[in-house]
Amino acid sequence: MIGGRVLSVRTRWLIPVGLGTFLLGVYVFTYPIDPSWSSIQQHIPSTWPFGPGRPGPPPDSNSDWNPHPPGPPPPPNSHWNSWTEKTGSATAKESDYIYPHQNPASPLLVEVDEEKRNAVVDAFKHAWGHYERKAMGSDEFHPIKGVGTNLTYSGAGIGYNIIDAIDTMYIMGLKTEYETARKWIKEHLSFRRKGSVSTFETTIRVLGGLLSTYYLTSDQLYLKCAEDLGSRLIHAFDTPLGLPVSHIDLANPAEWKDSWGNMKVCPAEIGTLQLEFRYLAQATGNETYWRKVEKVMEVIDRNTFSNGLVTGDLSLKDGSFFNTEIRLGGRVDSYYEYLLKQWLQTNRTEPFYDRMYSKAMAGINDNLIQQTPNQKLTYTAELIAKRGVKIVEWTLRHRQEHLTCFIAGSLMLGATTSGLAPGVVKASVPPRPEEFMARGLRDWNTGTELLETCMKTHDTATGLAAEIVTFKTEESPPHAHGTDEEERDWFISGNHINSKGAFWAPWDAHYLLRPEIVESLFLAWRLTGDMRYRNYAWNVFQAIEKHCRLPEGGYASVANVDRLPVKHEDKQETFFLSETLKYLYLTFSDTSVLPLTDIVFNTEAHPLPVFTPSTIKPGLS
Ligand SMILES: *[C@@H]1O[C@H](CO)[C@@H](O)[C@H](O)[C@H]1NC(C)=O
Ligand SMILES: *[C@@H]1O[C@H](CO)[C@@H](O)[C@H](O)[C@H]1NC(C)=O
Ligand SMILES: *[C@@H]1O[C@H](CO)[C@@H](O)[C@H](O)[C@H]1NC(C)=O
């Protein structure tokens, strides 16, 4: 059964029937009409990019609408957070705003940048087309050899690449590609594939992709497949405490049971399933999915440190955290991301998650946020446990993963929702300082500063950011890291050893086509309307085009971002199609496409709707 709420949310989009004729006009102009395609499209949210230009004027526009409202131009090199340095308090002067906002009660709408958006669509076609010709149906793709591989023992795939990419096709309006992908799902997709797959990766990429495509299209095919997959994955939660095991056999989902005994899991893999299973519950009306993932959050909440932080490892048996490492990168990252997004997903009706989120952000602020002594770059460090006889001592390690850069945009999103002052329902674009409560302002500033630092990590030979950077501290001796890196406040660990550009590259030096920085740029762009973020995103895209694009088709990872000519590695990760190119596309779309007020992106960039729980009553408060 489809939850009534889903339908009523959808009908909202059908209300402006008055615009219908106009929409259809634009639509006919943009795509050759095909009845089945257009019948799918009528279910797309009103935010659907109907080709160039948006239907009708923005709701608050006067006739002289201008995407860049009049006002003093930003001073050179200024950005939002510079005002705190100047004033040091929460009261800002009018002159501190980048874009003074005429009507703060209404969203700022900024037009599409068609040329750049089309360049991103072209990149998607280049990446997908090569996969479709060479490896259609395979889970993973190696674009240089032009071959695919599958994740299961049986040698058959689970639709990993196709399902991860299909909603991007739909959002980009790539009809031919979309129909090909849908046909594959309809005719070939099966989850009765023997082998061990990751509960987490399968949930965020496959379940998430099916659910978002269902949300966008209302096509029951996707919900049916999602329910089939969900009913298999749900067996992962059959452990004494209800914490899911990391891997599961989709063909025989109950079989893992013998081996769960001494398993360690990480917060990201058990705390990044909730958006997907909660929406599955909402869409099917089956409460089981909701309760299973909710229970996990209750167990985590009972076991976090008093400052809201967690380490990367906890016991599946008793839920306790091991004293290993406290950080924001791999193993933990999306756990923090989903604290905020669970609260947003249910339309801010579950204060439980808001409390967990704000406590964790305070813990991060107090313990992990650092500044370089030289250029004053804000960055995130890690805390490493050193075990003595009785006590555990935590020491800082000044290492930041590319993955960690998600936190910049997440802090900004959190500041403009969870961090709003009492009585402020919606933040302006850009937000005004007085709209924040103290912790909102703190997180906004930290987020914008971290994003600047993440952009600084693109100061490499290729303009691509490394997988891991290490920041220089008072203690790092001068010239310790190779003469070519003196200018920077950070270095790529291990890279000075082969400064002659040998074949070997340390892991830290890779670029794997990751999305986290463009994800944060997209959020920053939407929340501020500040062109600097669009420009940054364009620079990142240009570097990808220059160094990752393969002439025959596809995009490859780069082994060392700081060495030219680049050495490619033979992998085009599915998240390049699902996340990197989607966030870039959305950054150059107009701001009404998938508005942040109506949707939450899962950690794989699959958009899911915000809804108010009705049939299912949330159990944590
Ligand atoms: C992976 O599995 C799919 C079927 O699910 C099949 O079409 C494809 O050929 C397989 N790829 C490889 C490399 O075996
Ligand atoms: C709800 O989902 C669970 C898990 O897949 C399943 O066992 C149960 O039969 C479903 N309930 C209904 C009413 O469909
Ligand atoms: C969210 O809540 C607000 C105010 O309580 C309400 O106006 C809005 O319709 C809700 N949105 C959804 C998607 O349920």
UniProtKB/TrEMBL annotation:
Q: Which cysteines are joined by disulfide bonds?
A: C405-C454
One GO term of the biological process aspect? ERAD pathway
Q: Tell me any Pfam family this protein matches.
A: Glyco_hydro_47
**Reactions catalysed according to its record:** N(4)-(alpha-D-Man-(1->2)-alpha-D-Man-(1->2)-alpha-D-Man-(1->3)-[alpha-D-Man-(1->2)-alpha-D-Man-(1->3)-[alpha-D-Man-(1->2)-alpha-D-Man-(1->6)]-alpha-D-Man-(1->6)]-beta-D-Man-(1->4)-beta-D-GlcNAc-(1->4)-beta-D-GlcNAc)-L-asparaginyl-[protein] (N-glucan mannose isomer 9A1,2,3B1,2,3) + 4 H2O = N(4)-(alpha-D-Man-(1->3)-[alpha-D-Man-(1->3)-[alpha-D-Man-(1->6)]-alpha-D-Man-(1->6)]-beta-D-Man-(1->4)-beta-D-GlcNAc-(1->4)-beta-D-GlcNAc)-L-asparaginyl-[protein] (N-glucan mannose isomer 5A1,2) + 4 beta-D-mannose; N(4)-(alpha-D-Man-(1->2)-alpha-D-Man-(1->2)-alpha-D-Man-(1->3)-[alpha-D-Man-(1->3)-[alpha-D-Man-(1->2)-alpha-D-Man-(1->6)]-alpha-D-Man-(1->6)]-beta-D-Man-(1->4)-beta-D-GlcNAc-(1->4)-beta-D-GlcNAc)-L-asparaginyl-[protein] (N-glucan mannose isomer 8A1,2,3B1,3) + 3 H2O = N(4)-(alpha-D-Man-(1->3)-[alpha-D-Man-(1->3)-[alpha-D-Man-(1->6)]-alpha-D-Man-(1->6)]-beta-D-Man-(1->4)-beta-D-GlcNAc-(1->4)-beta-D-GlcNAc)-L-asparaginyl-[protein] (N-glucan mannose isomer 5A1,2) + 3 beta-D-mannose
State which residue ranges cross the membrane: 12-33
Which residues participate in Ca(2+) binding? T603
Active-site residues (renumbered): E201 (proton donor), D333, E467 (proton donor), E516
The record's comment on protein family reads: Belongs to the glycosyl hydrolase 47 family.
Under the GO molecular function aspect, what terms does this record hold?
Answer: calcium ion binding; mannosyl-oligosaccharide 1,2-alpha-mannosidase activity
Regions of biased composition (Pro residues) lie at 67-77
Q: Name one GO cellular component term.
A: membrane
What name appears for this protein in its UniProt entry? Answer: alpha-1,2-Mannosidase
Q: Which cofactor does it need?
A: Ca(2+)
Gene3D superfamilies registered for this protein in UniProt: 1.50.10.10
**Could you name the domain of life of the organism this protein comes from?**
Eukaryota
Which keywords does the record carry?
Answer: Calcium, Disulfide bond, Glycosidase, Hydrolase, Membrane, Metal-binding, Transmembrane, Transmembrane helix
Q: Hey, which pathway is this one from?
A: Protein modification; protein glycosylation
What EC identifiers does the entry list? 3.2.1.-
Region (Disordered) location: 48-84
